[in-house]
Amino acid sequence: MLQFRNLLMSVAAGFAATISVLAVMQERQDTSLLKYAVLTAISICFFFAFLTFRRGVTHAILERRYILAGITILSVFTLISLIDWPLFLNRPWYETVIVDFISLAAIFCFFSFIAFLLLRGGYVWQRSEISKWTIVWYMLPMIFVWMFYLLAFFPGNMSPDSLNHWRQVENMEFNNWHPFAYTMVILALTQIWDSPAVIVIFQMLLLSFVYAYGLYSFRQYGLGKKIAWAAAILWAVLPINGIFSTILWKDVVYSTFIVFLTIFVMKTVLQEGKNLRTWSGIATFTVVLLGIAFFRNNGLPIAIMTAIGMLIAYRRIWKQLLTPLVLVSALYVIVTGPVFTAYNIQSANPNESMSIPTQQIAAVVSQDGELTEEQLAYLDSILPINDWNAYNPYLTDRIKFHDNFHDEVIVEDMGNYLSVWFDIVKQNPALVTEAYLKQTSLVWQINKPVDGYTNPYTIDVDPNEMGLETKPVSQTLYDGVEYLLETSRYHTEELFWRPAVFSIFIIFFTLIASRKLGAVAWLPILPVLFNTATIFVGLPAQDYRYLVSNAMVSIFFLLFASLYKKGKEPAYGVHAARK
Questions:
Q1: What's the gap between Cα 261 and its chain centre?
Q2: If 135 and its partner were Cys, which of 118, 212, 334, 433 is the partner (CB 3.0–4.6 Å)?
Q3: Phi and psi for 324 in degrees, rounded to 5?
Q4: Do 88 and 96 form a contact (C-beta atoms < 8 A)?
């Protein structure tokens, strides 16, 4: 009788939650019946499980008030991230209250139930011996699946940025507008095989090795064999990994180093800092920091801030940690300074970091905001005033690559540009805030704005004068993989192709890990946190690649939350899982 009652309540809650959440996100006519059906079925199953374990769920989230507070904050933010804002503003207030309240309750129940599952069990944090050959075994399914992507899009996918690197190698004329380090990787590898495919194979091997190394490291500290294999297979079949491994972007290598650094910090926590007392550990830490610093132009502050965070957390061994911090900083200054000068390697345009101020100024000009005559004259010297109307709220290219845009005015006196921008911000707070939220929507918004876009990946080789073109091994395979990607994008864009959902889960899993492993469990979030922060202040476009590292690393945070420390055993008399 109780089960039947739970089932009836689950059906009612499932229908209500599905209708409300989808109503928050989009117009009814824009939602397919398939999406309604699938989400309803999932919701009914979820609420049935929730009601079955409701007492345990209640106990789990009330056991520690900061868990309850964290879940509440994340639930509110998730709701905000899902909202279609024009729809929200135009809907009758009473409908908004009902729909948003039911959606918020459903989201809160979801987070609470996942927290309950993670807090009630897991794997004990203890050292065990695992063969290093395990790394190779975990790599195999990933390489096997990803090779189908390479065969479909042979010799690899290349955007204009990719072609810029390739052109530098062909002409032997280098610059750092797109990271010089990635160009050098292309130069070195093409000595082996003069084809983009060799870069793709390198990226596949690097990414699969880092994933497999992470699983091996977790196995060393208690993670079960079955869940490790499940993670390896999941990484293999996720379209995100398959397609990104075949794209010649520096972001792929950079993101792999972000994942590697996160794993290293997690391993440091699990080893209680012992790996930082060895030269091999310090050497690994240094190499990973160098990879982050050199493979994207915003990488240095992420490397430095993460190293400082580690130094603070493990200040008793500050001398060992000072070595990579000083070495990475010194090498970066030497390479990008004297070395670039000596070999006439042009540094990145400083104006590239001005995406947000430029977008905010363009928003004010194009929407007839408050501007003084002096400000108008100065902005006109950069771009004729009428041309500022080319403004797109989600893309800086319409302005910074405009034929009449004089970026030298900005570069020659960056201080004056920032001063004018600051004054314009003070004069037009509403307009610049709206412009900022739209430009950074990729970072914080799960639901794609109705007037916005997401550029999730690129396929094929862009037209070029170098004779590079897509030559699939099989047209049938090409069509099949392309259909898989487009289907995934159409039906699961909010889940897989907007990075905000992964950022939310990373914070959530870290919250749970801090309950099971202690406050030091917050340390591994630093690389993701600092990387996201740099994107928040300089995002030029809605390109998924800027935050694809959040998707790549998110499962490791789930695995991290699956471990527990002795003295913080699972509650409620439920035994932890065995290996």
A1: 14
A2: 212
A3: -65, -35
A4: yes
Structure-token match 């950022």, residue found: 503
Tokens encoding 443:
């970072």
- 566 burial level (CB within 10 Å; 0-12, 13-18, 19+): exposed
**Tokens linked to 342:** 């000596």
Q: Summarize pLDDT for 228-252 with one digit per residue, the tens.
A: 999 999 999 999 999 999 999 999 9
Residue 157: beta bridge partners?
A: 247
Report which residue type is found at 347.
S
Say whether pTM exceeds 0.85.
yes
What is residue 370's three-state secondary structure? coil
Q: What is the DSSP letter of 564?
A: E
Alpha carbon distance 171, 260 (integer Å):
33
The residues spanned by each domain of the chain are 1-120, 124-348+464-564, 350-444
Measure CA 347 to chain center: 26
The residues near 549 (Cβ < 8 Å, ≥ 6 apart) are 254, 255, 258, 259, 528, 531
**SS3 label, residue 138:** helix
Under 8 Å CB-to-CB from 279, ≥6 apart: which residues?
Answer: none
Q: Which whole-number Å values give the CA distances from 547 to 448, 499, 531, in the listed order?
A: 15, 6, 8
Partners of 563 in beta bridges: 123
Q: What does each C-alpha distance from 303 to 291, 362, 528, 553 come to in angstroms?
A: 9, 32, 11, 17
Q: How many CA atoms lie within 13 A of 249 on its CB side?
A: 25
**Angstrom distance (rounded) from CA 227 to CA 243:** 24
What is the 8-class DSSP label of residue 337? I
CA distance to 275, 356, 498, 546, per residue, from 433 (Å): 45, 11, 22, 22
